[in-house]
Amino acid sequence: MENKRALVISGGGAKGAFAVGAIKYLMIELGLTFDLVVGTSTGALIAPLVVTQDIANLIHFYENIEDQDLLGNRPDILAFLFSDALNDTKPLKRLIYNFFGNRVRYEKLRKSPIELFVTVVNMQTGMVEYGNQHTDKKSTLLQKILASASIPVMMPPVKIGRYQYIDGGLKEIAPLGKAIDEGATHIISIILTPEQEYRKPHQKELKSSLEILKRTIELLTDEILDNDLKIANLYSKAICFVDRVKKNAKEKLCLNPSEITKLFAGIENPFSNKKIIEITTIRPDEELMESSLQFDPEKMKQMVDKGYRKAKEIVKKD
Amino acid sequence: MNRQRIFIKKSIPIILKLVILSAFFLLFNFCSQRTDYSPKILIGFSERLTALVTTTVRSNLRENFTKQNLLREKLPFLEKKTTFSELMEELKITEHLKDIAYLIEADLMFELQKPENWNWRENYNSLEVQKEIFNATMAGIKQALSQLKGERDGK
Residue A252: exposed, middle, or buried by beta-carbon count in 10 A (0-12, 13-18, 19+)? Predict the structure, then answer.
């Protein structure tokens, strides 16, 4: 089985700048290439530029973008009562369509051998679906990229055909599972929140229902992320364990290959034909910012630098 | 007839007010719509290189005031150079700035290896291309130092 290197970029809004810095280090300084790139939410905005190797524009966008470049404000209470979201995503849609509306840029994405996957959740079926440059039409892929970045309640769902789609982070914020399903043998995952013990507790008392709703989404998101990572690591360890058992059977019990096959006969092995997966995780040591929907160029530049330096610390040159 | 005329006379100011208010509302709405918010897309080779160099220099020198000062002191000497190769030679003279020079070269190589940049690759040794790359790199170095100025001033 061939080796496949995947890059997985989690969701996290403005904190995506951290991922951009890490990618700059991995791709330019280390010269790493990827066979597939999977992104959720802000990761879905980053992923197509990784596939087309357009790191300069990726940096340029994440270092210079401001709130109004992505979201149109709607008055909170009116929007909450009378529309499908608190903000509208027309500016973000314009940004995506301006960029990949260009034929040359889109062709580069379409013809790239690096597989792109962006996660979305179908609001009607509740299933996770993926956008891919080789299986989806251009219009569908661009809509899925927009949908993947559309945080529920904060941004409206995107209608594709007869279904409404929303941020894939609702069910899969760090889509490592997709990378494993696609046969990745080495995954570099960029996670935009620190490990649980380093997360800051929320200091303020939450008074309005809207504040409680926003905090609830944050907590659910953290939980989904922790589970995504736990499952992927457990999966990787399980494959290692089965492999170790087979080695021990050979070395310590002196069983030959046919006897080892007999040992496993009758047991359905969910890990058969799966290679050991190496997972490298790059994530910040502390919370990068309080609200992931604050696009402040100065803070974004600092996050780019943090991501760059963290990647340098974690992934060393061979 | 008289009643009708009085009614019409009374209605005209109300209708006028409504028309004026609507016009104001439409004008306000029109003005509040910005046509293009997003940062401009980088298209040219030079501006892309500048973006990469800016981030490389800034990321590596952040919180390293010694290196920042060294590079600032070196700036007048760097500006006197005319080609990219000379610029790199000058940077590499200072031991502590050698790594920055290698990283800038990596940025350049990353852009040069792209199929669409074959023209830059083929004419890499020409004076014109060397000057262009020199200018793009210098712009990146200066931009990075100016972005780090806030950090040095404790802002």
Answer: exposed
